[in-house]
Amino acid sequence: MASADERASLLEQGNNTESAAARGVTEMHTDVAGVVQDVILGAADGLTVPFALAAGLTSAFSDSKYIIVAVLSELAAGAISMGLGGYLSGKTEVDHYKTEKKREEYEVKHQEDDEVEETLEIFREYGLSDDQIAPICEHFKQNHVICCPSYLMDALALAILETIAGP
After folding, report:
1. Dist CA 70 CA 54 (whole Å)
2. CA-to-CA distance for 23 and 6, rounded, in angstroms?
3. What is the mean pLDDT of residues 10-33?
4. DSSP code of 126?
5. Comparing C-alpha atoms, which of 62, 140, 146 is closest to residue 102?
6. For 32-61, what is each residue's pLDDT tens digit?
7. At 69, which helix (H) or strand (E)?
8. Is the pTM of this model over 0.70?
9. What angle do the packed helices 130-143 and 112-124 form, to 10 degrees?
10. Membrane topology per the record (predicted)?
11. Which residues contact 128 (CB under 8 A, 6 or more apart)?
12. DSSP state letters, 19-57
């Protein structure tokens, strides 16, 4: 059980108004599951065609060096193709998130009332009353803040994608 001093210290830390970033707190977000999924899919897909090619060529050529050259050529071409496909897919996804962010920023500036209503609906789902939400909405309006939690999750996803795919 924590002593009174330890509990007081924890409460003090919890009441600290300094941001997590200012306190040196960093959160590590990774997409390990996505990478593992890509590796498994890539390995399964990347090995299927060379084996099928080798099986087909064995009936046409008796000299194994032709088969080896053909399979190695296909492996190289397949690796380049899959690499470019993965890069372009990641870049397209990043571009999509950036476009969505710009659209949301436009809506915040030019469709203010709709965005306030969207904010009210979102925070009502968390059990807040309109009176509790009003000061938050007012702050968002004055500072042109995008407040939609789904947008914030998209921003997190964008940061992860940019880390993986590059800017």
Report:
1. 8
2. 19
3. 55
4. T
5. 146
6. 666 777 778 777 877 888 888 899 999 888
7. helix 64-110
8. no
9. 140
10. Multi-pass membrane protein
11. none
12. -TTTTT-------HHHHHHHHHHHHHHHHHHHHHHHHHH
